[in-house]
Structure formats: structure tokens, C-alpha cells
Design brief:
The chain contains 8 helices and 6 strands, in the order E-H-H-E-H-E-H-E-H-H-E-E-H-H. By secondary structure, the chain is α/β, with parallel strands linked by helices. It has a 6-stranded parallel sheet with strand order 3-4-2-1-5-6, with helices on both faces. Bound molecules: 3-methylbut-3-enyl trihydrogen diphosphate (2 copies) and magnesium ion (MG).
Length: about 250
């Protein structure tokens, strides 16, 4: 049975988030510059996006550039931003053809002008699409997001728009950049690293984690399917007890 056929289609995660890691190592293995890996990472993005949409995933969030990635050498940052501009422009038609809405989270205003402009244009153009929401995390980090939320909540309390007693889980969610998007049920990280690197810390409270040694440029839709099969075999208890599992171990 193909890996895709092993997926139980009425128990899909609604939201899958991916930490796309390992581009630099992929390039190095072939004696090439890091940028070569980023360029080949685009094919992995394309195939994963198509695979997710084909399966019926509603939200796919990709960690593309972190706040901390600004600490990389300027030459890599500039080349990455250039790649982003070109890729967004080139892929907008594919997004339209596949009815995919583009979204971005992160400090988008800190991106170079042309990058920011192209990104906003693609977001506007695809705003009416409804099959899947593809969110790119760009200049994103969870601590940046949570700090920003706290500042905005404090300001609203100060301005009398909000009462401090009204602050609860669901209010905090509304101040996050992911407001309106369900928490990811599944978080994938490639390249054999077992860490979260400042990604969606609030939202992954109860996410299932899937780690693979594959380096991002080698990741394809079959790897996504495999992660979903693994997810569907997990026992999600959310702090409670699952009667069937309990019976087995009683
Ligand atoms: C992930 O690949 C892409 C970004 C973080 C932009 P890396 O560039 O982190 O590649 P490695 O982890 O050094 O191999
Ligand atoms: C995480 O990868 C960020 C992205 C994938 C965009 P990094 O390569 O930046 O993370 P660390 O440095 O290994 O934690
Ligand atoms: Mg890395």
C-alpha cells in the first residue's frame, strides 16, 4: 500500500507546521555554497505545498526565516531575500491555479522593500482563495510575537479598550500573529535537529512533533504523508486519560 493510501482522510491534521532546516548542510555535502541549498529548498517547498493541498490540509505554515537568521552573514541574507522575491513572484500563478491563499507572519516590515512589496502583492492577489492557507513565517520568532502581543494588550488596557480581568487564553490568541488560525496538530522538523528554534511556542502547546533526518532540499510530499501517518498513530491525551489506552495498560 502506498504511503498516501495509509492516511485516514477523515482524521487529517487541520494545520501542519514545518521547520525547514538543513539547506546549508545539503549544499556542503556536495561541496557547494550554502545558497545552492536554499535554491534547491524551493523545489521541496513546491512539492510539499502541492502535496498538502492535494491531501486536503487546511493550513500549512513554513518557517522560512527567523529573527535570529538576521545574524547570518550579509551575503547569505541578501541572497535569501532575493530568492524569496523571485520565488514569490514566480509562484503566485501556481497559488492561484491551486486556489491557495498566501499569508505571512513575522516582522514583515523589516524585510527589504522589494521583498515586502512582492509579498504583500501576492497576499492581496490570493486573498480570495479558499482551498488551503499557506503561511510563511518570515523574520518571525515566537518571543518577538509574544512580546508584541503583550505590548498591544498592555496598550489596550491603558487605553481603556480592554479590562485586565478579561485576559485569558483565547484573548491572548487574538493578539498573536496567528489569530484565526487553529493551533498546528503536527510540527515537523527536518535535518535531524531536535529543537524548536523559537517557532510558534504558544501554538505548539499540544502539537505532535515529527523529526526526520532528511535535509530540507530532499523533503517531498511522500515525507509529509509519512509524518501524517505517524501523527495518526499517536495517542493524543491533552492531559486527560484515554480509556482505550488505559485498558491496554491496566
Ligand atoms: C534552513 O536551512 C533555511 C533557513 C534557516 C533560512 P539552514 O540554512 O539553516 O541550513 P543548515 O541548518 O545550516 O544546514
Ligand atoms: C530554524 O532553523 C529557522 C528556520 C528554519 C527558518 P535554524 O537553522 O535557523 O535554527 P538553529 O540555528 O539550528 O536552531
Ligand atoms: Mg539550520
Amino acid at each position: 500500500m502506498s504511503i498516501k493510501n495509509q492516511i485516514i482522510t477523515d482524521r487529517l491534521p487541520r494545520h501542519v507546521a514545518i521547520i525547514m532546516d538543513g539547506n546549508g548542510r545539503w549544499a556542503k555535502k556536495q561541496g557547494k555554497l550554502r545558497m545552492f541549498g536554499h535554491q534547491h529548498g524551493v523545489a521541496a517547498v513546491r512539492d510539499t505545498v502541492e502535496g498538502a493541498a492535494e491531501l486536503g490540509i487546511e493550513y500549512l505554515t513554513l518557517y522560512a526565516f527567523s529573527t535570529e537568521n538576521w545574524n547570518r552573514p550579509a551575503i547569505e541574507i541578501n541572497a535569501l531575500m532575493e530568492l524569496l522575491v523571485n520565488t514569490i513572484s514566480k509562484e503566485t500563478k501556481t497559488l492561484m491555479d491551486n486556489n491557495i491563499r498566501l499569508n505571512a507572519i513575522g516582522d514583515i516590515e523589516s524585510l527589504p522593500g522589494r521583498c515586502n512589496k512582492n509579498l504583500k502583492a501576492a497576499i492581496d492577489k490570493t486573498a480570495g482563495n479558499s482551498r488551503m492557507t499557506l503561511t510563511l513565517a518570515l523574520s518571525y520568532s515566537s518571543r518577538w510575537e509574544i512580546t508584541r502581543a503583550i505590548k498591544n494588550i498592555a496598550q489596550d488596557v491603558k487605553d481603556g479598550k480592554l479590562n485586565a480581568t478579561e485576559i485569558n487564553d483565547s484573548l491572548v490568541e487574538k493578539y498573536l500573529t496567528t489569530a484565526g488560525i487553529p493551533d498546528p496538530e503536527l510540527l515537523i522538523r527536518t535535518s535531524g535537529e531536535y529543537r524548536v528554534s523559537n517557532f510558534l511556542l504558544w501554538q505548539i502547546a499540544y502539537s505532535e512533533f515529527y523529526f526526520t533526518n532528511k535535509l530540507w532540499p530532499d523533503f517531498r510530499r511522500e515525507d509529509l504523508f509519512e509524518s501524517i501517518v505517524s501523527y495518526q498513530n499517536r495517542d493524543r491525551r491533552f492531559g486527560g486519560v484515554n480509556e482505550s489506552t488505559n485498558a491496554k495498560h491496566a
